[in-house]
Design a protein that fits this description.
3% of the residues lie in helices and 60% in strands. It is built from 3 helices and 35 strands. The strands form 3 sheets. It has a 22-stranded antiparallel β-barrel. A 5-stranded mixed β-sheet has the order 1-2-4-5-3. The protein has a two-stranded antiparallel sheet with strand order 20-21.
C-alpha cells in the first residue's frame, strides 16, 4: 500500500465539512483466518449460517442405542422424542452434547435481531424461550448437565404459544437431581509454526436445585491463537511488480465469561427465569511486513498493531403468571459493552529516514435495554398472544487520530465525525394467532408495527422518526408419518449497526468511512419453505429454500460532500437453498458409522451505487458445504472421524476497491477419541491436513467507473498444521 498514512490523512482532511459515520473496527480479512473461527456472512436471512461445533466435537453420532430413539410421536405437534438413554453410547456431558447428536437438526442461534420481538432461535427449555442474546441457546444448553435432562423433543414451532417459531424446534425438558453436579472441558492447541501454544481454553460449570428450582453457573474462556505468514506481491496498473512483502501476522484472543441461570416454578404455576453473564474480550493483533520494492534488499519494515480490552455484561429475566384466564409474561433484558481499541501502523526505513505512520484510538460504549410484555390466552379456536415491547439502544464513541510528521513525531489530526453518540428509542406492538386447521396442519399469523426514533450528536446530528409494519404467516404440515413441511412469509425490519453512523478508519487496509447520518433501517420480505424427511433407521434429510427481497439494504455508497460510508441502496434480492443430511449405516451392517453433510448455496443481486449495474451483495456467502464422517467402534470407547469444509464469498466492494478472499483447497481435520480415560473423554485432533492457504486479492482503483487501476495486491499465506487435545469430564 503506497504511503498508507498519507492516503488516510488526505481522506480525513477532506472530512472537515462532511457528516460523521460510525463503524465497528472492521472484521479481519477472511484471508487472515485459520479455519477455526470462520466469520458469518454480513448479509443473511433469519440465520442462514447455523451455529455448529467442529465435526469431531459435534455428534459423537452413529445410530442411537435405543430402538425407540427418535421415534415418531402420535402427537401432530411432536415430531420426534429422545431420552438420555438414547445417547449413552456417546458419553454426553450436557444437553448441548445431546442436541448436537440429533440427526437432521442444527441449532440456530440468535442472529442479533431487532430487540427481543418474536423468538428467532429454534431451542426452548421446558417450553420457555431463552431471555438472552449472547447468552443464548448454545450457552444455556452447555450449562445443563446430562443428569438433569429428562427428554429432548423435536416439535413443530407453529404449535407453540411462542410467536415466531416455525419448523423444527427443540424443547429440552429438564428436572433437577436435587444435588450439585459439575462438568469441565479443557482444550490445548499448537501449530507447526508461527503461533504460540494455546493453553487457556476451557470451561467449568455447576448445576443444582431442588423440586421447584434449577440453577447453573459456568466459567469459560474461549481462547484463540491464530496467525499466518507468506508473500504479498504488489503490481501497478500495467501489472508490473512494484513491491515484494514478506509478511507474518498473529492474532491472540481471550474471551473469559462468567454466566449463570436460575429458574423457579412456584406452587401456583408461576415461573421465574433469570440469566446473566459478565465477560471480556482481550484481543491483540500484530502484522510485520518486510518490504523490498522491485529490488531484493529489504528497505522498509512496516508493523501494524491492534488491540481491544472489552468489558461486557448481560442480564435477562422473565416472569409468567396466570391472569384473567390467560398467562402474562414479563421480560426484561439489559446489555452493556465498553470496548476501548487502539490500532497503529509504523513504517521504518533502512536508510534511517524518519518513520511514517499513524495511530487511531477509540473508546466505544454501547448498550441495549428491553422491556417486553406478552399476554397469551385461548380464543377463536386457537391461541392468541398480544405483545408490547420497548427498547432503548445507544452507542457512544470517542476517537482520536494521530499522524507522524516529517520528523517522525505523532501529531493530532482532526477527524470529523469520529466522536459522536447514536441513540434509538423504539416501541412495537403485535398480535399473534395460532391454531390447528386439521389434525396435521397448524398455522400461525402475526401482525404488528413499530415506531422508532433515531438521534445522533456531532457535526451530522439530527433526530428522525420511523414507522414500520411487520408480521408473518407460517404453517407446519405433517404430510405423513415421516415427512414434515413448514413455510413462512415474513415482513422483516432489520437492525442498523450504529457503528455505521460514525466516521472510522482501518489503518491496516487504508480505508476511511465518513459519516452518514441518513441511514435508515433496512426492510425485507422473507419467504421460506422447509421439508424434513425422516429416513427411519437410515437417518434424516432436511431441505430449506429461501428468497428475501430487500429495501434500503445497507452497503457501501458515496456520500454527498465527499468520501464513502455504509448507506442504503434501494433494493436487493437474496435467494438460495440449504440441506442437512444424516446417514446412519447400522442397517447396512456397519454399526457406529455416521455421515453428515450440510450444503448451502445462494445467489444475490444489488445495483452497484457507483456503476449502476447489477452485482452480487458485497461479501455474500454463496457456497458453503461441510462433510463429516464418524466411526464409533461398538463395544469399545474408541471413535475416529474426519471433517471437511469449503466456502466461497463474493468480493467485498467499496467505491475504490474490490477485494476477495480465496481459501483453497478447503479446511480438513481428522480426530481420534477415547470416551473413558479415567472417566473422562479425551480427543486428539489434527487440522488443516490439506494445507489450506489464506489467499487475498485486492484491487485499488483511481477511478472504478472507468476501470482505471491504481495498484493490485496478491497475498498468499500459510498457517500450518493445527494440533489439539481436548479433555471433557463430569464430577
Amino acid at each position: 500500500m503506497n504511503c498508507p498514512h498519507l492516503l488516510i490523512s488526505a481522506a480525513i482532511a477532506s472530512l472537515a465539512t462532511v457528516p460523521a459515520v460510525a463503524q465497528d473496527p472492521e472484521p479481519l480479512d477472511y484471508s487472515e483466518l485459520d479455519g477455526r473461527d470462520e466469520p458469518q456472512a454480513n448479509i443473511t436471512t433469519d440465520d442462514i449460517r447455523l451455529d455448529e461445533a467442529p465435526a469431531d466435537e459435534r455428534a459423537n453420532s452413529s445410530s442411537l442405542d435405543d430402538e425407540t430413539a427418535g421415534q415418531e410421536s402420535d402427537d401432530a405437534s411432536t415430531r420426534r422424542t429422545f431420552t438420555p438413554t438414547d445417547f449413552e453410547r456417546f458419553a454426553p456431558r450436557n444437553a448441548l452434547d445431546m442436541a448436537r447428536q440429533i440427526p437432521g437438526f442444527s441449532i440456530r442461534s440468535d442472529d442479533g435481531a431487532r430487540g427481543l420481538g418474536q423468538a428467532n432461535t429454534n431451542v426452548i427449555i421446558n417450553g420457555q424461550r431463552i431471555s438472552g442474546k449472547s447468552n443464548g441457546p448454545v450457552s444455556a444448553l452447555n450449562r445443563i448437565p446430562s443428569e438433569e435432562v429428562v427428554r429432548l423433543e423435536i416439535v413443530d414451532g407453529a404449535s407453540l404459544d411462542i410467536g415466531g417459531l416455525t419448523g423444527q424446534v427443540l424443547n429440552v425438558v429438564t428436572s433437577s437431581t436435587g444435588g450439585i453436579t459439575g462438568q469441565f472441558r479443557y482444550s490445548a492447541e499448537w501449530r507447526s509454526f508461527g503461533v504460540p501454544f494455546r493453553w487457556s481454553d476451557g470451561q467449568i460449570s455447576l448445576a443444582g436445585g431442588g423440586a421447584k428450582t434449577e440453577w447453573t453457573l459456568s466459567f469459560e474462556n474461549d481462547a484463540g491463537r491464530r496467525g499466518d505468514q507468506g508473500i504479498e506481491l504488489v503490481f501497478d496498473a500495467a501489472d508490473l511488480l512494484i513491491d515484494t512483502r514478506i509478511e507474518q501476522s498473529s492474532f491472540t484472543s481471550d474471551n473469559p465469561v462468567l454466566s449463570g441461570s436460575f429458574a423457579r416454578t412456584a406452587t401456583n404455576g408461576n415461573v421465574l427465569n433469570l440469566t446473566g453473564q459478565v465477560g471480556g474480550n482481550i484481543f491483540r493483533q500484530r502484522e510485520v511486513s518486510e518490504r523490498s520494492g522491485i529490488i531484493e534488499a529489504i528497505d522498509r519494515l512496516r508493523t501494524f498493531r491492534s488491540k481491544e480490552d472489552e468489558f461486557n455484561f448481560e442480564l435477562g429475566a422473565d416472569y409468567s403468571f396466570g391472569l384473567g384466564g390467560g398467562t402474562l409474561k414479563l421480560i426484561g433484558y439489559h446489555r452493556y459493552e465498553d470496548s476501548p481499541t487502539r490500532s497503529s501502523v509504523l513504517t521504518e526505513f533502512v536508510n534511517d529516514a524518519a518513520p511514517t505512520g499513524s495511530v487511531f484510538t477509540r473508546d466505544a460504549d454501547e448498550g441495549e435495554t428491553i422491556a417486553r410484555a406478552e399476554y397469551s390466552f385461548g380464543g377463536l379456536g386457537g391461541d392468541l398472544q398480544f405483545a408490547l415491547e420497548g427498547v432503548k439502544n445507544f452507542l457512544d464513541i470517542s476517537s482520536t487520530f494521530e499522524e507522524r510528521d516529517a520528523g517522525g513525531v505523532l501529531q493530532p489530526v482532526e477527524f470529523d465525525g469520529a466522536t459522536a453518540r447514536v441513540e434509538e428509542d423504539r416501541a412495537e406492538a403485535s398480535v399473534t394467532y395460532g391454531r390447528p386447521l386439521t389434525d396435521n396442519l397448524l398455522i400461525q399469523i402475526s401482525a404488528g408495527a413499530e415506531y422508532s426514533q433515531i438521534s445522533q450528536s456531532g457535526v451530522a446530528g439530527q433526530t428522525r422518526t420511523f414507522y414500520r409494519p411487520k408480521g408473518f404467516a407460517s404453517f407446519d404440515w405433517k404430510a405423513s408419518d415421516t415427512l414434515n413441511v413448514s413455510g413462512r412469509v415474513e415482513r422483516v425490519v432489520g437492525q442498523l449497526d450504529f457503528f455505521d453512523f460514525i466516521a472510522s478508519t482501518n489503518l491496516d487496509q487504508d480505508r476511511v468511512n465518513v459519516t452518514n447520518a441518513d441511514l435508515v433501517p433496512p426492510q425485507s420480505w422473507l419467504f421460506e419453505l422447509e421439508a424434513t424427511q425422516s429416513l427411519g433407521d437410515f437417518g434424516s434429510l432436511n431441505l430449506r429454500g429461501f428468497f428475501e427481497d430487500f429495501s434500503d439494504i445497507v452497503d457501501q455508497i458515496p456520500i454527498a460532500g465527499g468520501g464513502q460510508a455504509p448507506g442504503n441502496i434501494d433494493s436487493a434480492t437474496l435467494y438460495g437453498v440449504e440441506s442437512e443430511l444424516t446417514l446412519l449405516f447400522d442397517p447396512l451392517g456397519l454399526p457406529g458409522l455416521r455421515f453428515d453433510s450440510e450444503i448451502f448455496l445462494s445467489e444475490s443481486e444489488v445495483l452497484d451505487p457507483l456503476l449502476g449495474t447489477p452485482r452480487e451483495i458485497s461479501g455474500n456467502l454463496f457456497v458453503d458445504f461441510e462433510l463429516e464422517l464418524r466411526q464409533d467402534f461398538i463395544g469399545t470407547p474408541w471413535a475416529i472421524g474426519g471433517f471437511f469444509r469449503y466456502d466461497e464469498r463474493q468480493p467485498n466492494v467499496r467505491l475504490d476497491e474490490v477485494a476477495q478472499r480465496l481459501d483453497t483447497p478447503g479446511f480438513a481435520r481428522i480426530f481420534v477419541e477415547h470416551k473413558d480415560v479415567f472417566g473422562m473423554t479425551a480427543r486428539f485432533r489434527v487440522g488443516n491436513i490439506f494445507d489450506r492457504k489464506n489467499r487475498f486479492d485486492r484491487t485499488i482503483f483511481v477511478d472504478r467507473v472507468n476501470n482505471i487501476v491504481d495498484f493490485r495486491e496478491d497475498r498468499d499465506r500459510n498457517f500450518g498444521t493445527i494440533f489439539s487435545v481436548d479433555i471433557e469430564g463430569s464430577f
